[in-house]
Each structure stands twice: as C-alpha cells, then as structure tokens.
Automatic annotation (TrEMBL):
Transmembrane segments: none annotated. Binds directly to 23S ribosomal RNA and is necessary for the in vitro assembly process of the 50S ribosomal subunit. It is not involved in the protein synthesizing functions of that subunit. PROSITE patterns: RIBOSOMAL_L20. Belongs to the bacterial ribosomal protein bL20 family. One of its GO terms (cellular component) is ribonucleoprotein complex. GO terms for molecular function: rRNA binding; structural constituent of ribosome. This is Large ribosomal subunit protein bL20. It holds the Pfam family Ribosomal_L20. The keyword ATP-binding does not apply. Keywords: Ribonucleoprotein, Ribosomal protein, RNA-binding, rRNA-binding. GO terms for biological process: ribosomal large subunit assembly; translation. The keyword Ribosomal protein applies.
Amino acid sequence: MPKANNAVASRARRKRILKQAKGFFGRRKNVWTVAKNAVEKAMTYAYRDRKQKKRNFRALWIMRINAGARLHGMSYSQFMGKIKANNIELNRKVLADLAMNHQDAFTAIVNKIK
C-alpha cells in the first residue's frame, strides 16, 4: 500500500507559519526552519508579555498617583491608606488618570481624605 503524506495539510501548516513570520528580518521571514523557530519564540514572548503588560501598567499608575500625592505632601502609601479608610472606591487606573489629566479633581479627592 502506498504511503500517504498529506501534502495539503503540510503546505497549509508551513504557509500559516510563514504568514505569521511576515515582517521579520532576513531569513526569519521566508526560510521554513528559521521562520518556525522565530515564530515559536515570538509566540512565547507574546504570551509572557500579555501578563507583564498588566504589571507594567499597574506600576505606571502607582508612579503617577505617587507623583500626584507628593504634590499635596503625602506619600503613595499614606494616600492609598486614607483612600481605603474613607471608602473611596476608585481604582488605581482612574486615580492615575485624575492625577495626570484632571488635577482639580485629584485635589478634591485629596482634600476630602485629609
């Protein structure tokens, strides 16, 4: 009995990988073995960095809140402690936006918790 290779599926699989490698530099975009490794590594980084993006944004929000709080003579930890004590249900994303773009609203929050 002859051996069946299923070239259609193999070609489709290679085509899919090479399509994902579009925009890569040099042989990474058009040589199958190189592209396969490059795409695998890229997918690993993409998976990892979807998680890291959340951490990075939280860190950015904390820095912005800290800068806004220090303009009013408080540290970040003091500010967040007083926010929780006064039952103000604003998350870090919103507080950071207020501190950056709406200083008057942020000042009103600071005056409320002092």
